[in-house]
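Allow me, if you will, to draw on your knowledge of protein folds for a short while. I have a record of one protein: its chain in single-letter code and its fold written as discrete structure tokens. I remain grateful for any guidance, and I place the record below:
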Amino acid sequence: MEQLMLKYGCNPNQKPASISVAEGDLPLQVLNGNVGYINLLDALNGWQLVRELKQATGLAAATSFKHVSPAGAAIALPLSESERRMYFVTSEALSPLAVAYVRARGADRMSSFGDFIALSDTCDESTAKCINREVSDGVIAPGYTDAALAILSKKKKGAYSVVQIDPTFEPSPVDRRTVFGVTFEQRRNDIAIVPKMLDNIVTRNKALPPEAVRDLLVAMIALKYTQSNSVCFAFDGQTIGVGAGQQSRIHCTRLAADKADLWRLRQHPNVLDLPFQSKLSRNDKDNAIEQYLADEAETSLFDDGIWQRYFTKCPDPLPKQEKRNWLAKVSNVSLASDAFFPFRDNIDRAARSGVSYISEPGGSLRDDVVIQACDEHGMTMAFTGVRLFHH
């Protein structure tokens, strides 16, 4: 049995800690740094997610993981000018993998602070340069170019965790874990997320364009590796809001929708033109934008004079009505849920964030009420028949 010792488990008092395989060699190598227990939980879940995104779409994929759920996940579709500005990559040429990473990181930059990254393809120099600018704990990929490894090995004063995964490795079909001395066993969730799952459209509106199919697949694959309960909003080949680990489905939907709204508001001209201090870090810019867009901004950021920490001059506030007007233009967002919606409140909240397409397993006693809500909003909803709980 091959074993890799770790510095500690979930917390510093949980020693010793290790990972191992019962037979053969570990499917990963630590090329740099001292990877931790939670890092590897993020890494292995993230690797499965990007591997499946690449298989489903044929495009390079990346994800940004925090505490065993994706803060963002994306495939390599071209960036718009406003997206380049909101992701702080205005002028440089980016490889497809770098674009996927920038999108994944940009989905929820606040939550991605200190993330563990997973990449579907060999990490190239372009991607490594993008990673090097962000606060991150580590990265897992099937390989690294010499230039990329040289860049990443210097990050965090040489302590950055760089993990290489064997892309040919296939685990046992049986998963096992021990909780309080009791061993649980189940079949690994190896179901493939495919377009055919979206064939059972139950709403009056049957329109499901290829872009929506793609985005629903992105959302469903992300949910497969998100702590349940979970709901995911997706647009243009990336997640834009993930609501993870909530006990109530409506709380998942509200959380994901609020994050999706924030992603949209970051593209408002007032935000793109904020007069940042010249030496402000990316993370401080993220914090400034978050405060600028917060509902209480007019009493905290402006009245308390906090703006002076971030900006060369006091920016004009973004009034609540202007936020509503900006978000009212949004449409064609896709939403996936890892289990059925028990009440229509989820649909009504989703409609406010521009959701046009929904996938969920179906099977609720109130499916008819949920379908009716979708019909009232003109949405298309498919029942997949597949639950995607992940714990």
